[in-house]
Please model this.
Amino acid sequence: MTLKQMLFGFDGRIRRRDWWLWSIATGLIYAAVVVTVNGLIFQSFAMDPVFDGNLVGPFALSVVLYLPLLWVQLALAAKRAHDRSHGAALVIVGQVIAAAATYVPGGSLVPGNGSVDLLAVGVQGLAVVINLALFVLLGCLDGTQGPNRFGRSPKGVGGDPAGPTAAVFD
Model:
């Protein structure tokens, strides 16, 4: 599988190891890019008294920069779901909901201001449940042994009936 197929394609199967490595690597790259770009663009504004702590610009920029990462994460999750013999639709919907929930304002349970937005807390709680389910499904459980309807085993376990060695033994 090429790097382009691994990060941007939704076909095929990948191992847990590959899912973990690429998810962590792309997350770290995203974090470095957001910190660097926000620092370069908004550092001068942060020193300006007119800026007055307005975080709309950095927030909007982080959302825009998040979209390519989300695409990569969805592609990796789809391939990982395929390895477990599941369709990718439910995993993709779950990840989109969890990602969107992280941008819901409010929802702090920290005491101090006396107000709690229960709807925001509920949405973010749903995101936690979805992320835990995805963590178990994609990151902990083993894939299907041998080939399945999404392709051959990325581990090579169970043999590949369409492989070149199969023709030798016919």
Confidence is low (pLDDT under 50) at residues 166-170. The CA atoms of residues 12 and 151 lie 6 Å apart. The helical segments are 3-8, 16-46, 56-83, 89-101, 118-140, 164-168.
